[in-house]
Amino acid sequence: MTATTARPGRPSWTTLVPPVAVLVLVATWTRHESPWVLTLIAVLLVGAVLAAVHHAEVVAHRVGDPYGSLVLAVAVTIIEVGLIVMLMVGGGDGASTYARDTVFAAVMITLNGIVGLSLLVGATRHGLASYNASGSGSALTTVVALASVCLVLPGFTVSEAGYEYSASQLAFAAVVSLTLYVAFVLTQTVGHRDFFLPVSSDELGRMTGVLDEDGDGHADPPTARAAWVSVGLLVAALVAVVGLAKLLSPTIEDVVAAAGFPAPVVGVVIALLVLAPESIAAVRHAARDRVQISLNLAYGSAMASIGLTIPAIAVASIWLDGPLELGLGPTQIVLLTISVVVSVLTVVPGRAKALQGLVHLVLLATFVFLSAQP
């Protein structure tokens, strides 16, 4: 991922939004019932999420891999966990399943939405979308293992009733998730870095090599001063996101309920918000015939959503009241299984037509529709 910088003397919106969001958070902490105030909070919440991811990218680019990848993943995870925890603290009909619904929505959006859009754009503009099946395959394998341990198995264990893990099982799943995530980051950035670089291809879309124009696979890193400014703005944006989410959480639930949608739709809304910047970046890379980067973003986001969010929620559950249901229902398991099978068939050849992108987008549309109309 690359980070953009503003022109000298002209602060960008990513510089202005975090401090403004913090000021509005402080000013409206005790009084935020007005529809106009809630609208302002919602706009600033979206802006703070986008700004936080931007500044995380700047910091990540400065420190380099593998630490840079962890900076970005941790920032996105803080946003996701903050939104989930604030909704769980507020109670509501779906409080016990918000973590599951959000993480599952993130997996479906990444496997089908980001991948589908990237393949559709890349193949439409360049004839065929080409990528390294070895790198993308190992990423997909990690995502499937994480999803199985954290989202599928809780519905089949017998230590707890329903779709819950026992305390020891939850701790085990958290440790395993974190271990898999760290192992993949080290594989991607240290052990087998070439497998995750953009590829060159022949006229039939077959991979012929990797592209690494300047020797490091990245644009020139920002200055130390720019990176430190981004660190401060990143902290401000994360504080604003968590605080504004707390103020807005009852409204999100009320709007979903007023529209007649079930509680899992809240998780879909959170995942769409958190993954919006990654989706935009992935499509831009696909348009430049760098579909490998798009897949890195998609599968990396899915891994972070499970491998970092579940451990964080597991720790937070020590202080949160009520059950934590992680197991997927039958319909969700079927959708996940179909998505995995289609993803495997997409990744293995190392090239894809626009049709395959459309297939993934149809699966995403099916997931969204069945979430709203189960």
From TrEMBL:
Keywords annotated in UniProt: Membrane, Transmembrane, Transmembrane helix
Superkingdom classification of source: Bacteria
Membrane-spanning residues: 12-30, 36-55, 67-90, 102-123, 135-156, 168-187, 226-249, 255-276, 297-320, 326-348, 355-372
Localization: Membrane
GO molecular function: potassium:proton antiporter activity; sodium:proton antiporter activity
Its membrane topology: Multi-pass membrane protein
Pfam family, one: Na_Ca_ex
GO cellular component: plasma membrane
Predominant place of localization: membrane
Domain named Sodium/calcium exchanger membrane region: residues: 35-189, 230-371
Name of this protein: Ionic transporter y4hA
